[in-house]
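Subject: sequence -> structure tokens, single chain

Hey, anyone have a minute? Need the predicted structure for the following. Not urgent.
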Amino acid sequence: MDAPVYSRPAISLITEGLSPHNSALYIGGLEGARDLDLLKRHGITIVVNCAINLDINFVRSPSLAEDGARCASGYSDIRYYKLGMIDGSGSPDTMMLGGYYILQGALNQTLPKRETYPFKDGGNVLVNCRSGRSRSVSLVGLFLHKQQPHLFPTLDAAIAHIRDKRELRQDEWFETPKPMLYEAARRASDWIDLVEARKAADAAS
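Reply:
Had a minute. Here:
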């Protein structure tokens, strides 16, 4: 039986001081992610959507209008990244690893100063899924553990911190995050160690 879904903030501040732009990281659900005024108030210019069953159209002034079967397209004030995990079993574990590097890339990209890249480097980040309880929690837990190990030396420590900041109550912890996503984050953590060790070896050779 599912735990009750409690009322909680639309978005929750999880951590600050992420390099290279001293960015803050938030978690939220659909209502937080689709609220442009809320994102603006918190300096959020980057959204990483973990959910496969949730799409958000951030395009405000399309450069190409909707035309028959063709969708409108254009730029947005939000840099939008879509991962597309299932909230439960069904996603390859490597998607969690991919999500980690998507989030790292979103924070670290140096964008060309051209008309076709109308974004600034940096900004705060929102990681969202439908309710900000499982997919987002597992990915951000992995990210905190690997990016701020002095604060979160284990994945469990990172998840405990997120549960507190996101106001996830103890009777819903069994699914916040879902166990298979928690385990996917553990395996991704081991793979990241292998990747980083190989990068360090290559740099030293």
